Amino acid sequence: MSAAAAAPPCAAPAERPVLRERGQHEVFCGLTGIVWLHRKIQDAFFLVVGSRTCAHLLQSAAGVMIFAEPRFATAIIDERDLAGLADCNAELDRVVTQLVERRPDIKLLFLVGSCPSEVIKLDLSRAAQRLSRQLAPAVRVLNYSGSGIETTFTQGEDACLASLVPEMPAEPGTARSLLVVGALAEVVEDQFQRLFAALGVGPVRFLPGRRAADLPPVGTGTRFLLAQPFLGDTARALESRGATRIAAPFPLGAEGTTRWLAAAAAVWGTSPEKLRAATAGGEARARQAMAPHRERLAGQSVFFFPDSQLEIPLARFLSRELGMRLVEVGTPYLHRAHMAEELALLPEGTFLSEGQHVDRQLDRCRAAKPDMTVCGLGLANPLEAEGMTTKWSIELVFTPIQGYDQAADLAGLFARPLVRRARLEV
Ligand code: SF4
């Protein structure tokens, strides 16, 4: 039976049927998030407490040159540590002390847990508290886990941001403010700042900020918009501090961006005329810039392997704004509340799958023969060798894709592999 024939029947968005898969995964771990997070928080340092494998992953994902002064590193757990012959806490204290002495620019240090640190049950939360006390007030030390056999690579950002929430100061009073949650490129942040100002929405703050000291306040007046769809733990932590999530689709594409802005505008009571005035120009510009890509992509079929948790918003964008046909939309986790607005916009009968059984999904993909397959790096090369056209999902997190002025770039990321394949076939 082909994937299309096996598609579950359509249903109202809230109860859309989903194929749940449990089996072998093909994913990167949450350490990957360090690659974009260290660029975003400019005085933070990420110290992975892990193995040589973790160091290799980070090094190759970030493509760091040997003479650079990067703001991440790996404290290697070696055989003596694993055998319990060394005092890991003493070793860690020594490494951290050396690091902060050598790098006075570090204001926020994340101890990032890994599979090996979890296997030997090294308590990084106690280590972070101890080191924070020692190094205060110059350096704040936090910890989170980037390990992942069962996780997705974007969960590293979620864990990192969730670790920041308890550190956020309390917002005095109940005055309303907007918090945009999720690491965004600075250029995108600036564009959104201008749009919110035009909508009369504010004050607007961003999590994470550009510097360690920029931690925004949070309280019962805080309304937050998720800029990324993989921030379930961060959202929960913010809600436990009294903040309220504004339900919205994600700001991908012209439509997604307008709906995302409109959701905040509705909370602030912005008039429809003011909303139109603030968004019409950006939306028209985005649609015009996307038009050549739409010509290339319309009618092409796309198959998503579960990898980044961006799959559902991307599928909505590709089908509604670029006319692509969705064969299967796989997602590692389906957060029904955070995805409700996105699910409502997907075409009826869209085949959704959650979790992964990679062999079964590969069978469905090969049977469907999609024009494009969106997947992780580990699957892309073998599928390309089989003649399929692929898009690396990780590129969609490394590249600024949110907002009106990035909509055409996002469309271009999907058009390029098809153009390249067409050229190769000439
Ligand atoms: S999966 Fe585990 S061992 Fe492998 S790089 Fe990630 S944290 Fe390190």
Tell me what the structure shows:
The protein is an alpha/beta fold. The protein has three domains: 13-26 and 284-425, Nitrogenase molybdenum iron protein domain (Rossmann fold, 3-Layer(aba) Sandwich); 30-151, Rossmann fold, CATH 3.40.50.1980; 177-272, 3-Layer(aba) Sandwich (Rossmann fold). The protein has 17 helices and 14 strands. The strands form three sheets. It has a six-stranded parallel beta sheet, sandwiched between helices. Helix 11 (272-297) packs parallel to helix 17. The two termini are 33 Å apart. Mean pLDDT is 91; it is low at 1-12.
Distance between the termini: 33 Å
Number of strands: 14
Shape: globular
User: Please, what is the CATH homologous superfamily of the largest domain?
Assistant: Nitrogenase molybdenum iron protein domain
Q: In CATH, what is the class of the largest domain?
A: Alpha Beta
Strand content: 15-25%
Q: State mean pLDDT (0 to 100 scale).
A: 91
Report strand order across the widest sheet: 1-12-11-10-13-14
Structural class: alpha/beta
Into which percent range does the helicity of residues fall? 40-55%
- Which stretches are poorly predicted, pLDDT < 50 over at least 5 residues? 1-12
Output the number of helix runs.
17
CATH architectural type of the largest domain: 3-Layer(aba) Sandwich
Measured on Cα atoms, how large is the radius of gyration?
22 Å
**Biggest beta-sheet profile:** 6 strands, parallel
Report the CATH topology name of the largest domain. Answer: Rossmann fold
Whole-number count of domains: 3
Q: Ions, cofactors, ligands: which are bound?
A: iron/sulfur cluster
